[in-house]
Input
Amino acid sequence: VATPSAAQDPARVFLDHFRESSEVRDPVDLILWPEDSVRVAHPIAASEYGSAMRTLADAHQADVAAGVVEVRPRGRFRNELVVWSPGATPVEAYDKRARVPFGEYVPGRSWLRHLVDLSAVPDDAIAGTRPPVADVAGHRMAVAISYEALFPLHVRDGFSGSHELSLDAFY
Output
């Protein structure tokens, strides 16, 4: 599967992942894509990428979980895990809570921009507020998206209750 990077064309990254996932041999319960494998400028559910993910879930009769970056207005974006189940629009989304300082956001951007060039980090990720949990392939899973895996208490938040599995979705 292709490795996404900021230098690659987002459409190409998506198509590479989709092509490889289409060749998965059934039966499977889950097809998992990494962080930043889908990049959209509007809500994923209403996009052509969302439709393709739904088609993939239907074709394999399996959940498909993908790292989605949704670009929002005013220099903001969401970094999330989105899950599609067969026959459904996205059924689950978890927004990354622990953002990378000076990588996914700039603390004190409003005053720091007067002192240094912030062009390397032009946008700020919106921090999620929900517990790090997603329903995936019939299981409640704790989720950690990349940097979040460094914070054990964050991941443990996903285990409160009856969660059966832990999933470091994108590390």
Summary: Residues 10-22 form the longest helix (13 residues). The helical segments are 10-22, 48-60, 109-112, 152-157. The CA atoms of residues 120 and 153 lie 30 Å apart. The longest strand covers residues 63-72.
